[in-house]
C-alpha cells in the first residue's frame, strides 16, 4: 500500500480580501505552518504598506519567508520557487499539511506547476531596456510589450519594470511571445495540492481596498516611505503604495497650495492616496484575471471560513 501523500493547501485571492486571517485560522485548525507567497512581504523594511501579519498574528502560527530579505537584495520567482519548496519539505517532516498563502499568481504557479524554461538574460539588451526605462519611463516599455505580446501585457503587473523588461527581453531574444513559454506541461509535485480562493463582490472588495489604504496612511505609511528614500531606485520598492508616496515626497517645487514653506499640501497628499487606491484596484483586476484561468481553484466568500474548513476536510480524505 502506497504512503499517503502530504498536502499543500493554497489560500489565494486578491489584495485586501483577508487571506491572512483565514490562513491563520486554517493553519491552527490543521496544526500547520504558513509560507508566504506575497512577494512584498519578504522585505524587512516594508511593513505598513505590505499589510504583513501583525506581531500577534505571527505568534499564533509559524510563518516562513516573511521578513526574510532586505529591499537592497535582488529576488525573483526562480529563487522563490526553490525557497518555498525547501520550506514545504521542512514542514512536511513534522506535519501532513503545509499552507501557502498569497496573491501573486506567478509565485503560486511556480510552486504548484514549476517554472517555464525561459532563455537566460542578455546583458547588453537588458541594459538597453533599462536605459529606456530610465529615460522614457515605464509607459514606453508598456507600449513595446503590448505590441510584442498583447496576451502577456494583459496579465502582467504593468507597473513592475522588472517583469515588463523581462517579457520584452524574451520576445526580442527568441522571436516568440513571452506568453508562449507559459503554456508548458506542468510539473507533478510529490505532494497533493488543494487551492481555495477567497473573493467577494467588486463593490465590497473596493470598499476593503479603500479602508486598508486609509488605515495604512493612519498607521504611518508616509513616514515608512520617507525612511526608504535612500533605496528609492531598488526594484523591490517600485510597487503600489510606495511609488505613489515617493512621487508625493519628491514633488518639486512643493504644491503652491501648501500650508507652509517646504510643506506638501493636503491636496497633493489626497492625490497620492487616491492613486494608491486606483492602482490597487487595477492590480486586483489583473490578479483575478490570472486566478480565474485556474479551474483547480474552489472559490469562497470572505466570510465562509467554516465552509472552507469543511471543504478542505472533505478534500483531504
Describe the protein.
With 317 residues, the chain is an alpha/beta fold. The protein folds into 3 domains: 7-117 and 187-200 and 294-315, 3-Layer(aba) Sandwich (Rossmann fold), CATH 3.40.50; 123-180, Histone, subunit A; 205-284, Orthogonal Bundle (Helix Hairpins). The chain is 49% helix and 9% strand. Strands 3-2-4-1-5-6 form a 6-stranded parallel beta sheet, with helices on both faces. Strand 2, helix 2 and strand 3 form a beta-alpha-beta unit. Helix 6 packs parallel to helix 8 (161-174) and helix 11 packs antiparallel against helix 12 (266-292). The protein is globular. The two termini are 16 Å apart. Mean pLDDT is 89; it is low at 255-263.
Main features:
317 residues; alpha/beta; Rossmann fold; Histone, subunit A; 3 domains; six-stranded parallel beta sheet; 6 strands; 9% strand
- Give average pLDDT, whole number: 89
Q: Which parts are unreliable, with pLDDT below 50 for 5 consecutive residues or more?
A: 255-263
CATH class (first level) name of the largest domain? Alpha Beta
Strand order of the largest sheet: 3-2-4-1-5-6
Sheet of most strands: 6 strands, parallel
What is the topological layout?
Blueprint: E1 7-12, H1 19-29, E2 34-36, H2 55-60, E3 63-64, H3 77-92, E4 97-102, H4 105-113, H5 123-136, H6 138-148, H7 150-155, H8 161-174, E5 192-199, H9 202-218, H10 221-227, H11 243-249, H12 266-292, E6 297-301, H13 305-315
Parallel strand pairs: 1-4, 1-5, 2-3, 2-4, 5-6
Amino acid at each position: 500500500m502506497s504512503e499517503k501523500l502530504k498536502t499543500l493547501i493554497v489560500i489565494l485571492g486578491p489584495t485586501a480580501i483577508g487571506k491572512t486571517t483565514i490562513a491563520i485560522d486554517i493553519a491552527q485548525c490543521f496544526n500547520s505552518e504558513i509560507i508566504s507567497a506575497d512577494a512584498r512581504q519578504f522585505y524587512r523594511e516594508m511593513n505598513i504598506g505590505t499589510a504583513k501579519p501583525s506581531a500577534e498574528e505571527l505568534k499564533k502560527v509559524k510563518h516562513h519567508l516573511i521578513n526574510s530579505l532586505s529591499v537592497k537584495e535582488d529576488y525573483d520567482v526562480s529563487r522563490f520557487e526553490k525557497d518555498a519548496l525547501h520550506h514545504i519539505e521542512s514542514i512536511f517532516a513534522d506535519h501532513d499539511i503545509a499552507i501557502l498563502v498569497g496573491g501573486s499568481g506567478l509565485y503560486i504557479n511556480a510552486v504548484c506547476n514549476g517554472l517555464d524554461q525561459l532563455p537566460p538574460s542578455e546583458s547588453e539588451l537588458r541594459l538597453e531596456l533599462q536605459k529606456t526605462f530610465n529615460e522614457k519611463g515605464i509607459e514606453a516599455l508598456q507600449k513595446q510589450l503590448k505590441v510584442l505580446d498583447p496576451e502577456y501585457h494583459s496579465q502582467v503587473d504593468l507597473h513592475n519594470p522588472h517583469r515588463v523588461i523581462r517579457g520584452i527581453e524574451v520576445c526580442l531574444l527568441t522571436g516568440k511571445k513571452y506568453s508562449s513559454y507559459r503554456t508548458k506541461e506542468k510539473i507533478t509535485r510529490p505532494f497533493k495540492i488543494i487551492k481555495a480562493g477567497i473573493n467577494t463582490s467588486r463593490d465590497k472588495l473596493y470598499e476593503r481596498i479603500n479602508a486598508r489604504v486609509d488605515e495604512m496612511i493612519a498607521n504611518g505609511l508616509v513616514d515608512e516611505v520617507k525612511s526608504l528614500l535612500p533605496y528609492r531606485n531598488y526594484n523591490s520598492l517600485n510597487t503600489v503604495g510606495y511609488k505613489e508616496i515617493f512621487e508625493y515626497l519628491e514633488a518639486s517645487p512643493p504644491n503652491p497650495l501648501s500650508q507652509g514653506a517646504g510643506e506638501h499640501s493636503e491636496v497633493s497628499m489626497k492625490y497620492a492616496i487616491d492613486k494608491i487606491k486606483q492602482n490597487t484596484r487595477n492590480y486586483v483586476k489583473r490578479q483575478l484575471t490570472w486566478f480565474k484561468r485556474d479551474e483547480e481553484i474552489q472559490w469562497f466568500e470572505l466570510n465562509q471560513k467554516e465552509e472552507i474548513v469543511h471543504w478542505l476536510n472533505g478534500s483531504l480524505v
